[in-house]
Design a protein that fits this description.
Strand order of the largest sheet: 4-3-5-6
Number of helices: 11
Shape: globular
Order of helices and strands: HHHHHHEEHHHEEEHEH
Oligomer: single chain
Distance between the termini: 22 Å
Structural class: alpha+beta
Radius of gyration: 18 Å
Number of strands: 6
Helix content: 40-55%
Amino acid sequence: MTAHDVIVDLTAAAEDVDRMVAGLTDEQWTRPTPAEGWTVAHQVGHLAFVFRIAGLAAADPAAFTALTQRIGTGFGAFDRAVNAALAEYLVLPRQALIARWRAERDAGVAALAAVPDGTLVPWLVRPIPAPVLCAAGMTELFAHGQDIADALGVQRRHTDRIRRIVEFVVHTWEFGYQANDLTPPAEQFRFQVTAPSGEQWTFGPADAAQSVTGSAVDLCLLATRRRHHSDLGLVATGADARTWIGLAQAYRGPAGRGRAAGQFAGSRSPA
């Protein structure tokens, strides 16, 4: 995986979301999404802000550090800052907010692309490589794009670039335990998933006693908490793995309510 490849995939993922919102009517723009209290406009504003701060972290690390110091430490403080920032986006008319999203998306991607190979970028807990931050951005696009798609009744079509998100899910497999004040198992599971192309991807120890198998798309829906595990086709083998699919999340901080069992019954994704 090269930094250039990740930038290409991040750009394509952002363009997919843009295509969903570019031609919306005012009614569609204000339509509620499955995220309680959030409309499509909220989702676009949130994504614009995420790219804004990612671009700031990449282009001006000192300014990003100063920003995080102002808003306070901890994910509660960050969540409050994100919600407060939405206000400046939501006052914008639809076309103005779309233009703002595009500008901040493009600036963020350009800033991430300019980070020299091997350079760490400051982030919420600790500095991380720019390609990892790009994968986190793709995970945000996947999650909030799914909320938009659900609100609009759009069936998304995924490609094998979703591998970046699967890798991020595997990398962050302990976050769900941390969010629930639980100790992760000593041994990671084996993840065996089917890509949109039908290719088989495996991650984790080859001799792991426990595993999670199924569709790569379902794994991403699970870990972004956009689907309840009972509405997906994932199979967990082992007691710890079964516990994990009930609390999995690919982001730090509070788990939130997620989606209810049966809310999207019958919407299992093909590979």
